[in-house]
Design brief:
The chain has 952 residues and is of the alpha+beta class. 38% of the residues lie in helices and 20% in strands. It has 27 helices and 33 strands. Belongs to the cation transport ATPase (P-type) (TC 3.A.3) family. Type IV subfamily.
C-alpha cells in the first residue's frame, strides 16, 4: 500500500487534533525573544552538516551508562581499588619490600596485592562490559533518516545528528528529541506514549504547526529548510520554549510540538520530525546522573577498622624500633659475638638512632600481616559466589517474561540486608498498567458484585485474625457490604458467612471465567441486555452512551478477535469503552466530525449504528478535573456529556439534577474505601439558540491573541459546564502486580519504610496506596499542596512561607497526637515538592516525612525523584534502595545506595543503570529479606571466622 493510500485511509480518524483548542497559524502569538543565557541553541533543519563543526557542533546521539571507557579504565579502576585503605597500605609495603630493609622477598608482598587488585578490576571490567553491551543495543537501533533528494535510509541511532529529518513509524521509539513536522493524519497530530519518561501509560497528543503540514511524504523534504532557535538542553520534561523560522515567517513553539527521546509513537502510522537535542543533551538523559561507584556499609566499616589496625601497627613498630635502638646503644657493646663483621648503612651499632629508623621500616613490613590482605581476596570470592546464588534463584524467576534476577554488581550484596528506606516508582513497578471496570452507580443503584484487591486483602486479613483468635465465624462482627446491592441485604450469620466466603474465593472463581482485559464487572442485571428490564432503563441507557461517546479515543480493528482495540489518552477511558462494548454500546468508528456507536440492545432487538456529531470538545486537564463533549444526535438534539471528579461535578449540578446525589455519594465513598478510582457522569440538554450563543463566545475566546486566551477559554467552558444532571458514577481498579500488597506487608513487618514517587496525579497515587496496603483505613492523611490563593501573589516567598507553615503545622499535629497507635501518611505534589526541597526547607520536610508511616510524592519529575532519594540518604544516614522500571527512574536508582531495576517489556534504561534487576516487584521481598540477610550474615561470619583462624 502506498503512502498516499495510507494517508487517505487515516484521514477520517483525525478528529483528535482538537481543533477547538488548536492555535491556527494565522492566530499565532508574538514569538519569544531569545536574548540572554539559556536560549542559545540554533538548529538548521535538514542541514546536519552545518552542525558537524564549531561553533554549531553539538553532542552526538551516542549514549553511555558505563563507568569506564578504554582510556579511563586503568586510571579510574586503579583509583577505585586504592580507595580501600588496606590496598593503599599494601601498595606502600610492596614498594618498601623492594628495598634492602625488607625482611623477606618482595614477591611475597607484590603477588598477593596484584592478585587482589587484578581480581577486583577484572570483576569491575566484566560488570561494565555488560553495561556497554546494553548501551550498544540502544545505540545500534535503526532509524529512517533523510539522506537528501527526498530519499530516506536507515542509520544507527548513534549516527543521528542535530538537524537531521527523521521518519518514525508506529510503535517505534523516538531516537532523539524531535520537533514534529507532520504525521500520517491530515492535521499533523500523533499519539505518544511517555511511560519511559514520566511513568504514565495514557497517550499524549502532539500537534505539528500548520505551516509544516504540506511536508506529508518523503519527496517533500528535498528542498525543506528552516531554522529553530530554542532553549539550551535542560532536564524539564514538560516545558519547551523556541521559535521556528520557516519561509520568512517566525512561529512560536511549545511542548505540544516536541517528541522526546525514548517515548513511543502509538496509533499513528508515521511522523516526520527534525532533531533538536541528541544523546546526553536530550531531556531524558539530562534527567540521568553519572553512574556512581557505590560501596557497601560493611566495606566502609572495614576501612575504619583498617585505620585502627594501622594505628596499632605503627605503635607496635615504634615500640619495637625504639627498643631496638636502645638495645643497640646500651647492650650491643657487651654482645660482641652478635656484632656483624661489616657494618652497613642499615645497621651500624655505632649509630643506634639511624639503625632504629631502618628497623621501624622493617617492622612495618614484618608486622604488616596484622592488616589482612587475604581477607579482601576471600570477600571478593564470596561476593561473586553470592551473586551467582542470586542470579540462579528459581524463586525469583518470572515465567511470563522468562526473566531472572540479576546481580549486576556484587559489591553491594551484603548491603541488601541493611536497607532502611525503599523509594519506589508506581507505574510499571507496583502496578500492571491495566485498568479494570469493576463497579458503577447508576440512578442511585449500585451495580457490580466483584471485589477489589483492597477488599480481598482485608477479607484475607480478617480470616487470619479469626484463625489466630480461635473465634467461630458466627461470632465475628459483620462488615458493611461494599456493593450495596439490594439483593444482598440479608442479615444475620448466614449473610456474613456468605459475604466473607465470596470475597475470599472470588479470585479463584475468576480464573474459571473468560477474562476480558479491562473488564472485571460481575452483575447479571446489566449484562446481556438485561439493563433494559431495570426500573431506570432510560438513565442506564444514557449512562452507557456517555461512556461510549465522551472520550478522546481511537478504535483500531483487531482482526484476530473480530472486534476493536482502543487507543485512549487515559487508561480509565480504555476501560470505559470496553465496559460500554460489553454492555452493548460499541464505539466502532471516528471521523473528522463524529463518532459512531453500534448499539446492540435497543428496543428493536437489532444492532443499530448511531452517529453522534461532535460539535465541541472541552479537554481534561489536571486543573479542570473534568472533560466534556457537546454532541448532536441523529434527531438533531444537542447534549453536553461530562465526566470528572465527583467533587467537581457535584458542585455543578442543577437543582433538578441532584435526584441521585445522596445515593451516588454513598456509593462513591464505598468505592473509595475499596481503593477504586472513581468518576462522576452527568449531562445537560441544550437548546439550539443557547448553544449558538455560547459557541460564538467560545470561538471568540479561541481566536483571541494574548496571554489571557487560556483564561478566556476556561471561563467560557466553565459557563457551559453548569446546571448539569447527575447520571451516575464509575469505579475502576488499577491492577497491582501479583503479590505487591503481600510484599509491602512483609517488608513493613521487617521494619522497612516505603516511599512512593510517581508522575501520576494525586488521586491516582492515593488509590494505589490503598490498594497495595501502603495507605490504610484510619490512617490520617497529611496533604501538602500549593494554596491557589497564595500562588497568585507576586514572588515565591509567599508560596514558600505557606508551604513551610503547612509542614510546621503537620509536624506539630503529629507531636500533639495523643493516640500512640495513630498512623500518618504524607502526600505531596511535584510543584510543592520543588519548594520543599529548597535548602532552607528540606530538613523540615524530611523530619515530617520520617515521622509518617507512609509517604507518597505525586507529579514528580525524574530529577525530583533523584533529589528526594539524595535527601533521604544524606539526611537519615541510613541505607536507601530505589526501585523503578523506566528511564524516568534512572536518576533515583543511581542516587540511592542500592538501585534495583524492573526488567519489564518497556525499555531497559532502569536495568542498565541498576545494581540489581528483578522481573516483578514481589521478588524484592526475597531479594532483601532472604538474600540480603544471608549475604550480610555470611560476610560478617566469614570475616570473624577467617580472622580468628588467621590469628591462631
Amino acid at each position: 500500500m502506498t503512502r498516499g493510500r495510507i494517508r487517505a485511509k487515516l484521514r477520517q480518524s483525525h478528529l483528535y487534533t482538537f481543533t477547538c483548542f488548536r492555535q491556527d497559524t494565522a492566530d499565532a502569538e508574538v514569538p519569544h525573544s531569545f536574548d540572554g543565557p539559556g536560549f542559545s541553541r540554533i538548529v538548521y533543519c535538514n542541514q546536519p552538516q552545518v552542525h558537524s563543526k564549531k561553533p554549531l557542533y553539538y553532542t552526538s546521539n551516542n549514549i553511555s551508562t558505563t563507568k569506564y571507557n578504554i582510556i579511563t579504565f586503568l586510571p579510574k579502576a586503579i583509583f577505585e581499588q586504592f580507595r580501600r585503605v588496606a590496598n593503599l597500605y599494601f601498595l606502600l609495603a610492596a614498594i618498601l619490600s623492594l628495598t634492602p630493609v625488607a625482611p623477606f622477598s618482595a614477591v611475597s608482598m607484590i603477588a598477593p596485592l596484584a592478585f587482589v587488585v587484578g581480581l577486583s578490576m577484572a570483576k569491575e571490567a566484566l560488570e561494565d562490559w555488560r553495561r556497554f553491551i546494553q548501551d550498544m543495543k540502544v545505540n545500534t537501533r535503526k532509524a529512517s533518516i533523510h539522506k537528501g533528494n527526498g530519499v530516506f535510509g536507515f542509520k544507527p541511532w548513534q549516527r543521528i545528528r542535530v538537524g537531521d529529518v527523521v521518519k518514525v513509524e508506529k510503535d517505534q521509539f523516538f531516537p532523539a528529541d524531535l520537533l514534529l513536522l507532520s504525521s500520517s493524519y491530515d492535521d499533523g497530530i500523533c499519539y505518544v506514549e511517555t511511560m519511559n519518561l514520566d511513568g504514565e501509560t495514557n497517550l499524549k497528543v502532539k500537534r505539528s504547526l500548520e505551516v509544516t503540514l504540506p511536508l506529508e511524504d518523503d519527496g517533500t523534504f528535498n528542498d525543506f529548510r528552516g531554522t529553530i532557535k530554542c532553549e539550551d538542553p535542560n532536564p524539564s520534561l514538560y516545558t519547551f520554549v523556541g521559535n521556528f523560522e520557516y519561509e520568512r515567517q517566525v512561529y512560536p513553539l511549545d511542548p505540544s510540538q516536541i517528541l522526546l527521546r525514548d517515548s513511543k509513537l502509538r496509533n499513528t502510522a508515521y511522523v516526520y520530525g527534525v532533531v533538536i537535542f541528541t544523546g546526553h543533551d536530550s531531556k531524558v538523559m539530562q534527567n540521568a546522573t553519572q553512574s556512581p561507584s557505590k560501596r557497601s556499609r560493611i566495606e566502609r566499616k572495614m576501612d575504619q577498622i583498617i585505620y585502627i589496625l594501622f594505628t596499632l601497627l605503627v605503635v607496635i613498630s615504634l615500640i619495637s624500633s625504639i627498643g631496638f635502638a636502645v638495645k643497640t646503644k646500651y647492650q650491643m657493646p657487651d654482645w660482641w659475638y652478635l656484632q656483624p663483621n661489616n657494618t652497613t648503612n642499615f645497621y651500624n651499632p655505632k649509630k643506634p638512632a639511624l639503625s632504629g629508623i631502618f628497623h621501624l621500616v622493617t617492622a612495618l613490613i614484618l608486622y604488616g600481616y596484622l592488616i589482612p590482605i587475604s581477607l579482601y581476596v576471600s570477600i571478593e570470592v564470596v561476593k561473586v559466589l553470592q551473586a551467582t546464588f542470586i542470579n540462579q534463584d528459581i524463586h525469583m524467576y518470572d515465567e511470563e517474561t522468562g526473566n531472572t534476577a540479576q546481580a549486576r554488581t556484587s559489591n553491594l550484596n551484603e548491603e541488601l540486608g541493611q536497607v532502611d528506606t525503599i523509594l519506589s516508582d508506581k507505574t510499571g513497578t507496583l502496578t500492571c498498567n491495566q485498568m479494570d471496570f469493576l463497579k458503577c452507580s447508576i440512578a442511585g443503584s449500585a451495580y457490580g458484585s466483584g471485589s477489589s484487591e483492597v477488599e480481598l486483602a482485608a477479607a484475607k486479613q480478617m480470616a487470619i485474625d479469626l484463625e489466630e483468635q480461635g473465634n467461630e465465624l458466627s461470632n465475628f462482627p459483620m462488615h458493611k457490604n461494599s456493593t450495596g446491592d439490594s439483593w444482598n441485604d440479608a442479615s444475620g450469620l448466614g449473610a456474613t458467612e456468605i459475604e466473607l466466603e465470596t470475597v475470599v474465593t472470588s479470585k479463584d472463581e475468576k480464573e474459571h471465567k473468560h477474562v476480558i482485559k479491562g473488564f472485571s464487572f460481575e452483575d447479571i442485571r446489566l449484562m446481556g441486555g438485561n439493563w433494559s428490564k431495570e426500573p431506570n432503563a432510560d438513565v442506564i441507557e444514557l449512562f452507557l452512551r456517555i461512556l461510549a461517546v465522551c472520550h478522546t479515543a481511537i478504535p483500531e480493528r483487531n482482526e484476530e478477535i473480530g472486534g476493536f482495540n482502543y487507543e485512549a489518552e487515559s487508561p480509565d477511558e480504555g476501560s470505559f469503552l470496553v465496559a460500554a462494548r460489553e454492555f452493548g454500546f460499541e464505539f466502532c468508528k471516528r471521523t473528522h466530525t463524529s463518532v459512531h456507536v453500534r448499539e446492540r440492545y435497543v428496543s428493536s432487538g437489532q444492532p443499530v449504528e448511531r452517529e453522534y456529531q461532535i460539535l465541541n470538545l472541552l479537554e481534561f486537564t489536571s486543573k479542570r478535573k473534568r472533560m466534556s463533549v457537546i454532541v448532536r444526535d441523529e434527531d438533531g438534539q444537542i447534549f453536553l456529556l461530562c465526566k470528572g471528579a465527583d467533587s467537581i461535578i457535584f458542585d455543578r449540578l442543577a437543582k433538578n439534577g441532584r435526584m441521585y446525589e445522596e445515593a451516588t455519594t454513598r456509593h462513591l465513598n464505598e468505592y473509595g474505601e475499596s481503593g477504586l478510582r472513581t468518576l462522576a457522569l452527568a449531562y445537560k440538554k441544550l437548546e439550539e439558540s443557547e448553544y449558538s450563543a455560547w459557541n460564538s463566545e467560545f470561538m471568540k475566546a479561541k481566536t483571541s491573541i494574548g496571554p489571557d486566551r487560556d483564561a478566556m477559554l476556561e471561563r467560557v467552558s466553565d459557563a457551559m459546564e453548569r446546571e448539569l444532571i447527575l447520571v451516575g458514577a464509575t469505579a475502576v481498579e488499577d491492577k497491582l502486580q501479583k503479590g505487591v500488597p503481600q510484599c509491602i506487608d512483609k517488608l513493613a513487618q521487617a521494619g522497612l519504610k516505603l516511599w512512593v514517587l510517581t508522575g501520576d496525579k494525586m488521586e491516582t497515587a492515593i488509590n494505589i496506596g490503598f490498594a497495595c496496603s501502603l495507605l490504610r483505613q484510619g490512617m490520617k492523611q497529611i496533604c501538602i499542596t500549593l494554596n491557589p490563593d497564595v500562588q497568585t501573589q507576586d514572588g515565591k516567598e509567599a508560596v514558600k512561607e505557606n508551604i513551610l507553615m503547612q509542614i510546621t503545622n503537620a509536624s506539630q499535629m503529629i507531636k500533639l497526637e495523643k493516640d500512640p497507635h495513630a498512623a500518618f501518611a504524607l502526600i505531596i505534589d511535584g510543584k510543592t515538592l520543588e519548594h520543599a526541597l529548597a535548602d532552607d526547607m528540606k530538613y523540615q520536610f524530611l523530619g515530617l516525612a520520617v515521622d509518617c508511616a507512609s509517604v507518597i510524592c505525586c507529579r514528580v519529575s525524574p530529577k525530583q525523584k533523584a533529589l528526594v532519594t539524595r535527601l533521604v540518604k544524606e539526611g537519615t544516614g541510613k541505607t536507601t534502595l530505589a526501585i523503578g522500571d523506566g528511564a524516568n527512574d534512572v536518576g533515583m536508582i543511581q542516587e540511592a545506595d542500592i538501585g534495583v531495576g524492573i526488567s519489564g517489556v518497556e525499555g531497559m534504561q532502569a536495568v542498565m543503570a541498576s545494581d540489581f534487576s528483578i522481573a516483578q516487584f514481589r521478588f524484592l521481598e526475597r531479594l532483601l529479606v532472604v538474600h540480603g540477610h544471608w549475604c550480610y550474615k555470611r560476610i560478617a561470619q566469614m570475616v570473624i571466622t577467617k580472622e580468628c583462624c588467621f590469628d591462631v
